[in-house]
Specification:
The protein is of the alpha+beta class. The protein has two domains: 78 residues, Orthogonal Bundle (Muramoyl-pentapeptide Carboxypeptidase, domain 1), CATH 1.10.101; 126 residues, Muramoyl-pentapeptide Carboxypeptidase, domain 2 (2-Layer Sandwich), CATH 3.30.1380.10. It is 34% helix and 14% strand. The N terminus is likely disordered. The protein binds zinc ion. Zinc ion (ZN) binds next to strand 5.
C-alpha cells in the first residue's frame, strides 16, 4: 500500500517541522506571525496574514538592517533572525492554506473576527497544520484522543481562518467553485471556534456518528444544516 509518493510525502512532512517560508503573495497564519514579529521590531503592519507590498517593504528593510540578503523572501535565515524555526523544505509558499506549523508554546496571538469585528485571539494547533482558539483547541485535542481510543479518527480539514483565507473561500463559493462559505468576518472559523472534520460529507461516517453521540460533552455542536463536517465549540 505504501507508494513512493506516499513515502515521500511522509518524509517531507516529518522533515518540514517549522514555519513555512513567506514571500510576496503568501497568505496564512505564518504571514500573520511574520507581521507580528516585524511589529515587535518596529514595523507597523496590519496583522492580516496577507504578504502584500507593505509587508514586503518591511521585510526588505529588516533584512537590510540585519545584514541579511535583501530578497524579500522569509526563509530559514530571516525566520531564524526573528527567533522562529523555518521548515527545511520551504513549506507551502504562496498558498492560501493556514498550514504553517505553529511555533511551540502556549499559543499564537492573531486577529480573529467575531460578528464582523476584529478581536485578538490566541490559537493552538489541532493537527494537520490546523488551529483553533486555544480553549477550543484543548477541547478538540482531548476529544480527538478519546475518539482515537474508540477507533475513530477525527481529522481536521479546516480550523481557524484568517481574513485572507475566508475571503478566498467566500470568493470561490460566490463563483460557484467552492462550498458554502460565510461572508468574510462572519464565519465561526474566523473566531477560531469552528472546525471541519473529515467525514466524507456523510452523516453515516464513523466520525460524524461518534461526534453526534459525544461532541457535546466536549462542547462541540454541529450547527450548520447539510454540513456533517462542521462543528462549533460552544464551551
Ligand atoms: Zn466549516
Amino acid at each position: 500500500m505504501t507508494t513512493v509518493a506516499a513515502a515521500r510525502r511522509t518524509a517531507s512532512s516529518t522533515s518540514s517541522k517549522g514555519v513555512a517560508w513567506a514571500r510576496y503573495g503568501s497568505r496564512g497564519l505564518h504571514v500573520a506571525l511574520l507581521q507580528k514579529k516585524l511589529n515587535e521590531r518596529g514595523a507597523r503592519l496590519a496583522v492580516d496574514g496577507i504578504f502584500g507590498q507593505k509587508t514586503l517593504a518591511a521585510v526588505k528593510r529588516y533584512q537590510q538592517q540585519r545584514g541579511l540578503a535583501v530578497d524579500g523572501v522569509v526563509g530559514p535565515k530571516t525566520w531564524g533572525s526573528l527567533g522562529v524555526q523555518a521548515s527545511s523544505n520551504g513549506g507551502r509558499v504562496g498558498g492560501t492554506s493556514p498550514s504553517s506549523p505553529a511555533p511551540s508554546g502556549p499559543g499564537t496571538r492573531t486577529t480573529g473576527y467575531i460578528n464582523g469585528r476584529p478581536q485578538s485571539i490566541t490559537v493552538s494547533p489541532i493537527g494537520n497544520g490546523k488551529y483553533l482558539r486555544s480553549d477550543a483547541a484543548a477541547a478538540f485535542n482531548r476529544m480527538k484522543a478519546d475518539a482515537a481510543r474508540a477507533g475513530v479518527n477525527l481529522s481536521a480539514v479546516s480550523g481557524f481562518r484568517t481574513m485572507a483565507e475566508q475571503t478566498y473561500l467566500y470568493n470561490l463559493y460566490k463563483s460557484g467553485r467552492g462550498n458554502l462559505a460565510a461572508r468574510p468576518g462572519y464565519s465561526n472559523h474566523q473566531g477560531g471556534i469552528a472546525v471541519d472534520v473529515s467525514t466524507g460529507g456523510s452523516y453515516s461516517s464513523s466520525a460524524y456518528r461518534w461526534l453526534a453521540a459525544n461532541g457535546r460533552r466536549y462542547g462541540f455542536v454541529n450547527d450548520v444544516r447539510g454540513e456533517p463536517w462542521h462543528w462549533t465549540y460552544r464551551g
